[in-house]
Amino acid sequence: MKQTIVIFMGGFSSERSISIKSGNVVFDALDPNKYDKYRIVVSDNQWQCFDASGEECQLDKGSLSIRSKSNWVKADCAIIAIHGSPGENGQLQSYLDMIGIPYTGSGAYPSALTFNKRDCLSVLKEIGVPCATSYLLNLGDPIDAEAIIAKVGLPCFVKANCAGSSYGITKVNIASELMGAIDVAFREGNDLLIESCLEGIEVSVGVITYRGETVALPVTEIVTSNAFFDYEAKYLGKSQEITPARISIEMTNEVQALALKIFKHLNLSGYSRSEFIFVDQLPHLLEVNTIPGLTKESILPKQAESAGISLNQLFDNAIQEALKNSKL
């Protein structure tokens, strides 16, 4: 008997279009002989459910049941492909926990923690994970540009604290650019992070729980022609993503071990992708993503492919791990 799978996509943030692309890739990769699969597109004011033919279906949000033809079927598992709110910040996970539906990826609390960059980095600094020097700013706080620059230096990065896909990030090279960058970041949220600029080799490390074992995937080196790995570099082809990375075996082992340490310390599940920059051969953490991009152009699927794991295997495994964990 086939299992009923719902794939959440869309969401409330600037990453909505990327999420829909990710969700459709997941949908296409799942074996229709094994799963009855439905898309749930989340927007600010509604959830819309679509079957495999693209026909809209009636959805009961209270039980996550779908009316298919004349019958109601309840979801066996949910795949969360929403980047940003409400999929990456723990809100959707809390809802699914409440109604008892297993889901892929990390739980509500780890998701909320990693989505808040400054809180996540604070926790990881406590266990010795190297990070950039940072300055925290909330909307309405007095802004002392001299104090900020004195702490983090120039150039620096101004980041929205709770946003992804490089929305709300600006590289500030001179002091006169700082206030404009702060304004850009505050368009994405009410708090931001200003970090020192780390110069070195940038890499990305995926970690997945695959067939019961948590493993680090091959490391990807990121080379961009832009000022940093921004939206254009990530999604519009203005970067090279080289897997495996052109770094030594020792550097590879070190950054993979650090990514695994982070995954386990934060009690993550399913899959994650962590970004690092090597400074003097020491990996410094930039951020942790619990719902990384899942498009064919995205890093984690490419890393999985390099490890001999197809998209079908990657997402099928994520479902089976979620179902297994729900029974523990």
Give the biggest beta sheet: 7 strands, mixed
Q: What is the CA-CA span between the terminal residues?
A: 22 Å
Unreliable stretches (pLDDT < 50, length at least 5) are: 228-235
Shape: globular
What number of domains? Answer: 3
Radius of gyration: 20 Å
Strand order in the sheet with the most strands: 6-5-4-3-2-1-7
List the helices and strands and how they pair.
Layout lengths: L2 E8 L5 H14 L5 E8 L4 E4 L5 E5 L4 E4 L2 E4 L2 E4 L10 H9 L8 H8 L1 H9 L8 E5 L6 H8 L3 E5 L9 E3 L5 H9 L4 E6 L4 E10 L2 E4 L3 E5 L6 H5 L3 E4 L6 H17 L5 E9 L2 E8 L9 H8 L4 H16 L2
Parallel strand pairs: 1-2, 1-7
Antiparallel strand pairs: 2-3, 3-4, 4-5, 5-6, 8-11, 9-10, 9-11, 12-13, 12-14, 12-16, 14-15, 16-17
Descriptive account of the structure:
The chain has helices at residues 16-29, 91-99, 108-115, 117-125, 145-152, 178-186, 231-235, 249-265, 299-306, 311-326; strands spanning 3-10, 35-42, 47-50, 56-60, 65-68, 71-74, 77-80, 134-138, 156-160, 170-172, 191-196, 201-210, 213-216, 220-224, 239-242, 271-279, 282-289. It has ten helices and 17 strands. 31% of the residues lie in helices and 29% in strands. The chain has three domains: 3-103, 3-Layer(aba) Sandwich (Rossmann fold); 112-129 and 199-326, ATP-grasp fold, B domain (D-amino Acid Aminotransferase, Chain A, domain 1, 2-Layer Sandwich); 134-196, ATP-grasp fold, A domain (Dna Ligase, domain 1), CATH 3.30.1490.20. The strands form three sheets. A seven-stranded mixed sheet has the order 6-5-4-3-2-1-7, with helices on one face. Strands 12, 13, 14, 15, 16 and 17 form a six-stranded antiparallel sheet that branches. It is an alpha+beta fold.
